[in-house]
Amino acid sequence: MRAAVILPALAVLGALALSSVFIVDERERVLVLQFGQVKQEVSEPGLGFKIPLIQEVVRYEDRILGLPTQPIEVTPADDRRLVVDAFARWRITDLLEFREAVGPGGEDQARSRLDRIVNAAIREVLGSVPSGRVLSEDRTALMNQIRDLARREAASLGVEVIDVRLT
Q1: Helix, strand, or coil here: 72?
Q2: DSSP at 138
Q3: What is the rounded CA–CA span in Å between residue 69 and residue 149?
Q4: For the segment 98-156, what is each residue's pLDDT rounded down to a tens digit?
Q5: CB–CB of 47/23 below 8 Å?
Q6: What's the start-to-end Cα distance of the chain, in Å?
Q7: Which among 87, 88, 36, 94 is positioned nearest to 60, based on CA atoms?
Q8: Nearest to 96 by CA among 38, 161, 143
Q9: Angle at which helices 106-126 and 139-154 pack, to 10 degrees?
């Protein structure tokens, strides 16, 4: 009779103990949330602990991420139409600001907003120069201008745009 009570109790205690431990990989950062509020930010790899059933763990990439954009049509200053394809590289720099800015949508929401930011920067920079500059050795300087403009806009998301390349 005692075994019928003790074994299920031990199983429940074991399950609670296991659900209170989480592992942080070296390629990620973690937020521990309690009822939707951030209680802890963990950026060091290793074991972490949380209160089971009350706290949840949300994982974010700590690596540099890629953002391929859809080809867009740009009209440079000389009114010729160019189809531009770009690729951006970005990473999360401020996890709390990132969580506030993009919400529970996480990286997918950030990619959508970054796509709009990068496309707007491409249109602004390439729309102000003649098409000959886009196709010349000035291309690197233009990509750096696009990157700097996108970086300023994306800072409010808690991310850093590392590079933008026109392909």
Answers
A1: strand
A2: T
A3: 16
A4: 999 998 878 899 999 999 999 999 999 998 888 888 878 888 899 999 999 999 999 99
A5: yes
A6: 73
A7: 94
A8: 38
A9: 140
Decide: residue 9, CB within 10 A, 0-12 exposed, 13-18 middle, 19+ buried.
exposed
> What is the tens place of the pLDDT at every residue in 41-54?
998 999 999 998 89
Of the candidates 129, 139, 141, 137, the one whose C-alpha atom is nearest the C-alpha of residue 80 is: 129
Query: How many other β-carbons are positioned within 10 Å of the β-carbon of residue 163?
Result: 16
**Rounded-to-integer distance, Cα 86 and Cα 77, Å:** 19
- Token pair 């996480």 is found at 106
Beta carbons of 54 and 107 less than 8 angstroms apart: no
The predicted model scores a pTM of 0.83
The total of other beta-carbon atoms located within 10 Å of residue 60's CB is: 17
| Residue at token pair 């886009």 | 134
pLDDT, position 1: 63
Contacts of 77 (CB under 8 A, 6+ apart): 127, 128, 129, 130, 131
- Strand partners for 83: 73
Q: What are the structure tokens assigned to 49, written together?
A: 């602990």
Reading the block at residue 62, the tokens are 């700590």
Question: Would you state the structure tokens that stand for residue 35, as one six-digit string?
Answer: 């009822």
* Mean pLDDT over each residue of the chain, to the nearest integer: 89
**β-strand partners of 151:** none
